[in-house]
């Protein structure tokens, strides 16, 4: 009986940890930002230590355009490659952020 309870608690913990890790996946897609598909629970770049980051960003710029998203772990990241949009966000709409 103790083995059954221990297994149930362990399974609940694992499922909870997976749900927590994937909680924000889909937020960028819901607002219309094209996104690199995230891995199971490691974000969009599970092997980020194996690649040259600026080359990966350039590939995604060619693939998605001026604005794209990525997940670093469980947090969504938005990348902007258009200087006019960046200027508008950093100067004109600064009070909103």
TrEMBL record:
It comes from the Eukaryota. The keyword Heme applies. Keywords: Heme, Iron, Metal-binding, Oxidoreductase. GO terms for molecular function: metal ion binding; steroid hydroxylase activity. Belongs to the cytochrome P450 family. This is Cytochrome P450.
């Amino acid at each position: 009986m103790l083995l059954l309870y221990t297994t149930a608690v362990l399974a609940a913990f694992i499922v909870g940890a997976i749900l927590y890790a994937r909680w924000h996946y889909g937020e960028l897609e819901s607002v219309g930002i094209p996104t690199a598909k995230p891995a199971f629970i490691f974000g969009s770049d599970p092997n980020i230590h194996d690649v040259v980051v600026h080359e990966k960003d350039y590939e995604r710029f060619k693939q998605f355009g001026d604005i794209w998203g990525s997940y670093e772990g469980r947090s969504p990241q938005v990348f902007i490659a258009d200087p006019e949009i960046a200027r508008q966000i950093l100067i004109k709409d600064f009070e909103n952020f």
